[in-house]
Design brief:
This protein is of the alpha/beta class. The protein has helices spanning 15-27, 47-61, 76-88, 106-118, 130-133, 139-146, 161-171, 185-190, 205-216, 220-229, 231-236, 244-252, 269-281, and strands at 2-3, 8-9, 12-13, 33-35, 67-70, 93-97, 124-128, 151-156, 176-179. It has one domain (2-218): TIM Barrel, CATH 3.20.20.70. Strands 1-4-5-6-7-8-9 form a seven-stranded parallel sheet. The radius of gyration is 18 Å and the shape is globular.
Length: 285
């Protein structure tokens, strides 16, 4: 599942480039698209832009793959509003991050997600990324949330393999554990994760799709081979604030312009050259 970038031109969303990205992703074998997640610069899009990107993703995908809408917010009321508007835009599922900055306790996190789940019939993917949000959705709370019917998965982006294994052991029969870090995708498949919400697949969608397909088929040697093929690219995509390196790659590949929404700015000249060299080595230019 690709956490899509949001292409921009002259300060606005570039829907023409976005359409081409969606078509390329689907043609490359990606199983689902995540619109306006972290990689889609959700934190710096206004609400109207946010919903417009979701609606456009739904329109272009046209039922060929599910569209998962990033609908999280640090205020429960805001998350509920984005949920309602994402449903109206035609999303197939919702990705809800833990409330950032406020740092609620575990009961607050439970109540936040419970309120969202009760407000919609759509499937909900929990998103735990403590390095960005300042709070951690602990396994005991995930166990409580797993009892809610339409909470169907968790994007586990702690980078902690022991944590992921614990989640699979405790709630894997109720919710799907998904890797939220490309570097942990293959290791998490091995312990029972059911997929990845990927940044690297913006740049190498066919290869990320092949890695998952190989793992599902039990071809672990091929899945491992792809994991190591993409190791350097994965590292470079997070060498400077994301999604700047990913957008730089897509610009080098001629797929989008280089523009980002401040306070994220284009990558340094040194990283741009490293990205160009790695794309060339991977045969992606």
């Amino acid at each position: 599942m690709t956490a899509l970038v949001t292409p921009m031109r002259d300060g606005k969303v570039d829907f023409d480039a976005y359409t081409k990205l969606v078509e390329w992703q689907i043609a490359s074998g990606i199983d689902a698209l995540v619109a306006v997640g972290t990689t889609g610069e959700s934190a710096t899009l206004d609400f109207d832009e946010h919903i417009a990107v979701i609606a456009h993703t739904v329109k272009v995908a046209n039922g060929r793959v599910p569209v998962i809408a990033g609908a999280g917010g640090n205020a429960t009321a805001e998350a509920l509003d984005l949920t309602r508007r994402s449903v109206d835009a035609g999303a197939d599922a919702l990705l809800h991050v833990t409330p950032y900055y406020n740092r609620p306790n575990q009961d607050g996190l439970f109540r936040h997600f419970e309120a969202i789940a009760k407000s919609t019939r759509l499937p909900i993917i929990l998103y735990n990324v403590p390095t960005r949000t300042g709070c951690d959705l602990l396994p005991d709370t995930v166990v409580r949330l797993a009892a809610i019917d339409n909470i169907v998965a968790i994007k586990e982006a702690t980078g902690n393999l022991a944590r992921a294994s614990e989640l699979v052991a405790r709630v894997g029969n109720q919710v799907n554990v998904l890797s939220g870090d490309d570097a942990t995708a293959f290791p998490l498949y091995a312990v029972g994760a059911k997929g990845v919400i990927s940044v690297v697949s913006n740049v190498a969608p066919a290869r990320m799709a092949e890695m998952w397909d190989a793992a599902v088929a039990g071809n672990w040697s091929r899945a491992r081979e792809i994991h190591y093929q993409l190791r350097v690219l994965n590292h470079l995509l997070f060498a400077e604030p994301s999604p700047a390196p990913t957008k730089a790659c897509l610009h080098l590949m001629g797929r989008i312009g280089p523009e980002l929404r401040p306070p994220i700015y284009p990558v340094s000249a040194g990283l741009a050259e490293q990205l160009r060299a790695e794309l060339a080595a991977q045969g992606l230019l």
